[in-house]
What does this fold into?
Amino acid sequence: MTPLPTPPPTPRTAPLTRPARLRQGDRVAVVSPSGPVPADRLDAGLAVLRGWDLDPVVAPHALDVHPRLGYLAGTDADRARDLQEAWCDPSVSAVLCARGGYGAQRMADLLDWNAMRAAGPKVFVGYSDITALHEAFAVRAGLVTLHGPMPAALTFLKDPRTQESLRATLFEPESVRTLGLETARALVPGRARGITLGGCVSLLAADLGTPYARPSAAGGLLMIEDIGEEPYRIDRILTQLLRSGWLDGVAGVGLGSWAECGPYEEVRAVLADRLGGLGVPVVEELGFGHGETALTVPLGVPGVLDAESATLTLDLPALT
It folds into this structure.
């Protein structure tokens, strides 16, 4: 097979800095940058982490609820303080988000990114609303992050394959360099090389115009999914990304789950219509996001998206 050309690195497509893998006994912090967290679900998730011989510590405000805005896990300042203090604590090897919801964008501007860069790289895990922070870590700190399940999320608590994908990525990242479920298939044929990026597509669109939005997805392998967006709203989100030029030059697109977005054939028709004209490979149902199984996808790592085998294969392990 003819090797794929590797595009020259640019500030937006160069591989990012990979944090160190976890080891037994490592201390990990659990924070809540977005929505309120049910205590019983968090306790169950912490038990799983302890079963991996990790030492999870819960941030001081992780179980808070905002006094006026009940959809937020505490005030913006407290949520930001929890994340920053956890990140800057030298005894903490990883920061895991407890759940998604809404609110990460509200507190991203309150973080001291100079201090967080100075603290050095460490593992950061989350998905859904946490997409806003994945983008911020990529743009502001140049770090690889993990689009992966969170300890208070039901998928993490119920699905062994979801748990194992995260565990293996954290401890044995070389063992999970090829990603994709058996359901994966080509939506648009082809094979492309690039740097992984992405997350919840509605959050990517909402980030446009902010200091944390990358200029475009050019040269990247864009991994997108969402939840609760009807087909016409997915159309609107993708159309916004197309009209803004943000998708110009993207190398390939990997699609995850579209939970509660309506009949999948209707969603699929929108995806084919909006993404088919890009002239790049598109692979659907790779198995990350809000579905019944949520594989961990590293963001900021070079790899190959192959529509024929319906896989994403990383050139490097996610963590060193």
Observations:
- The first helix runs from residue 39 to 51.
- Residues 226 and 258 are 5 Å apart (CA to CA).
- Confidence is low (pLDDT under 50) at residues 5-12.
